[in-house]
Write a structure and sequence with these properties.
alpha+beta, Arc Repressor Mutant, subunit A, D-Maltodextrin-Binding Protein, domain 2, 3 domains, 9 helices, 23% strand, WH_DNA-bd_sf, DNA-binding transcription factor activity, DNA-binding
Length: 309
């Protein structure tokens, strides 16, 4: 038995919660992962996992072994990454998750500068507004907007995104411009609403003005949970919408959208880079995080509201 391989398989089973997901993450047949765990338990002469047809749970002895194995595997990977980087620079696979608008407008256009520095890193970019399970889906890090509610993740605050409120000229011709946020909840106006893929609930618009904070659940005809589709609905005149400044600026410049509710601002939303604390960051992940932090720091229009309505 290869103890290192068996240890790695055990750690992945604990993190993903199933043999099937662990096998997928490791690129091995499920039977091979099962056999490795059985051999490891026989070698240690202790039960590490309780297995039923529906779930896998860790025994107290298994949890102790998991914590120590995680530390040892992390140290080995750290050593390998350090030696590899010193010889030839960071390389390997890096799995990243990000929303559609951030991927399309910020991340992908800047990636040539990343590859100019680190040509041996292969990025797998998952593009979705869905909140994925980083451990179960074998994701190294993710860019997420809004508060991070999963306290098990390490969250690096990148900044607070500036949001603007706007509508299309077609919408304004039919309904006029709202003069107060509460009008968005009445019969004269409509909003394009966004619902959380995690909770299924529609997100209210939170306004701020001179220290005043106002939360409005607008009247909506259409609710979406993907940012590019949400933008398309606003451009089609289906309601008042709010989105990050960097998303809206080209459409405001072309006249396809017009800012509304002068003086009121949607509350800024924090942007985080998150990753599992139990996963030792490899050299590729570390340089990507450093590069991404530099990228967002160089884009002041992400965070500042310094243009008139």
């Amino acid at each position: 038995m290869d103890t290192f391989t068996a240890m790695e398989a055990f750690v992945r089973v604990v993190e993903t919660g199933t043999f099937t997901k662990a096998a997928d993450a490791l690129g091995r047949p499920k039977a091979a992962v099962t056999r490795l765990i059985q051999q490891l338990e026989a070698h240690l002469r202790v039960k590490l996992l309780h297995r039923t047809t529906r779930r896998v749970t860790v025994t107290p002895e298994g949890m102790t072994y998991y914590q120590q194995a995680l530390r040892l595997l992390g140290e080995v990977r750290e050593l390998e990454a350090t030696l590899s980087q010193s010889r030839r620079g960071p390389r390997g696979r890096l799995r990243v998750e990000s929303s559609g608008t951030i991927s399309r407008l910020l991340l992908i256009p800047a990636l040539p500068s990343f590859y100019a520095r680190y040509p041996q890193i292969h990025i797998e970019l998952g593009v979705s507004d869905r909140v994925v399970d980083l451990l179960a889906d074998n994701v190294d890090c993710a860019i997420r907007g809004g508060p991070v509610k999963d306290e098990s993740l390490v969250a690096r605050h990148l900044g607070d995104l500036c949001y603007w409120l706007c509508a299309s000229p077609r919408y304004l011709e039919r309904h006029g411009a709202p003069l107060h946020p509460l009008e968005l909840a009445g019969p004269a106006h409509a909003v394009v609403s966004y619902f959380s893929s995690l909770s299924g609930k529609e997100l209210p618009i939170v306004f701020v003005r001179e220290g005043e904070r106002l939360e409005v659940q607008g009247r909506s005809l259409l609710t979406l949970n993907e940012t590019n589709a949400y933008l398309a609905a606003g451009l089609a005149g289906l309601g008042v919408m709010f989105a990050p400044r960097f998303v809206l600026e080209p459409y405001l410049a072309s006249g396809e959208l017009v800012r509304v509710l002068d003086g009121w601002r949607p509350e800024p939303r924090p942007l985080f880079l998150v990753y599992p604390p139990t996963r030792q960051l490899g050299a590729g992940a570390r340089v990507f995080i450093e590069w991404l932090t530099e990228l967002f720091a160089s884009r002041p229009n992400l965070w500042r509201d310094d243009a008139g309505a």
